[in-house]
Amino acid sequence: MRLFLCMPLLAAIPGIAFAEPLTFDAALQRARQEAPSLKAKALGANAARSVRGAAGALPDPTLAVGIDSFPVSGPLAFEPQRDNFSMARVGVSQDIPNLAKRHAQQARADSDIKAAEADTAVQARTVEVGTALAWINLAYAERRLAVLDDILSGLERVVGTTPGAVASGGARPAQTLAGRQAVAAMQDRRSELVSNVARARATLTRWTGDPAPEIAGPIPDFAVDAAGLRAGLDRHPTIQMIDAQAGQADADVRVADAGRRSDFGVNLAYQRRDPRFGDYVSAGVTVSLPFFTRSRQNAGIAAAQANAGRVMAEREASRRALAADLDADIADHVMHHEQWMRAQSTLQPLAEQRVKLETASYAAGRASLVDIADAYAALADATITTLDREALVTADGARLTLTYRSGNR
């Protein structure tokens, strides 16, 4: 009853969570929802959409208030009531940029939205890949620890028989020291693996926000489609982001080109004089005269065009780099898979067989405890090496599939 009453209080304390263990897919989903960097990019895209409504709109009108023809010298100086020229003026003016410039500003705002969305997609890919690798790393870190615990338990059982063997004369007293040294060395290795588990869990916390993530479910097996990944590079989020930047550069060219056209303005003023005289209304139109386009507008157009060319060159450079990284990662994946198969089919079985043979020889009095310790150490090395290589293959598959897949897959 007391625990039941405390449940709401515990749930309200930050850092206390009753979450279920995270499967691979659940970890990815939580990272998409909780990653602060992804929220920041999404807010940036929202900001770009909010600005779009004002793009291409007319500037705010201007209110002007003043006094015209106020006498400051002569016989009527500072006596405006005696002449018929002094008047109070209030007016409104409105600038009207040319239509091409307004459309270009709207296009620039649209390109800003696409660029912000593309930047969000790039960050989403980074979060997804980071979470996937963190989950896989934690899974294999826990498996390495479990495997070493089994090997350590077997070694401790053998070392535990040493006092009896010494008492019966079947082993030398110094062999008990060798056994304890072997156990201590393997315990040191276990401490390292425990640290690796904690580090992997901390990395997964970074991506998911879960303060103490526990994983569950099978480790994913990604089938690497090299041809499909190569074919989709042009739709990769990084390339799409550069395409969006190219759209921004093209919009800048349009804005600069629109500067060669005239802008307009209208103004209206009401002028009030002494009641003895009549009032006035003034209206007018202004037109900008871009006479010096060669030294002004054309320079801006040339700069915008050069920037657009720079973006396209960077796109090609990025695509080549992406293709080269993909080919290099595929080559590493093939190598890692071959090494894993070799460890699984040769190295680990040989180490297991050596432990069995040395154990049998020790029982028959033909091997020492040092031989047993060496065999168990070799088994630990081979088993963990096999897991390391399997982890590389799995991480390669996740990295290749999630990093290089096209944006619409």
Automatic annotation (TrEMBL):
Look up keyword Magnesium and say if it applies: no
Matching entries from Pfam families are given as:
OEP
Q: Tell me where the transmembrane regions lie.
A: none
Q: Where is the signal peptide?
A: 1-19
Q: Which domain of life is it from?
A: Bacteria
GO CC aspect terms = cell outer membrane; efflux pump complex
Protein name per its UniProtKB record = TolC family protein
Q: What is the species listed in this Swiss-Prot or TrEMBL entry? A: Sphingobium psychrophilum
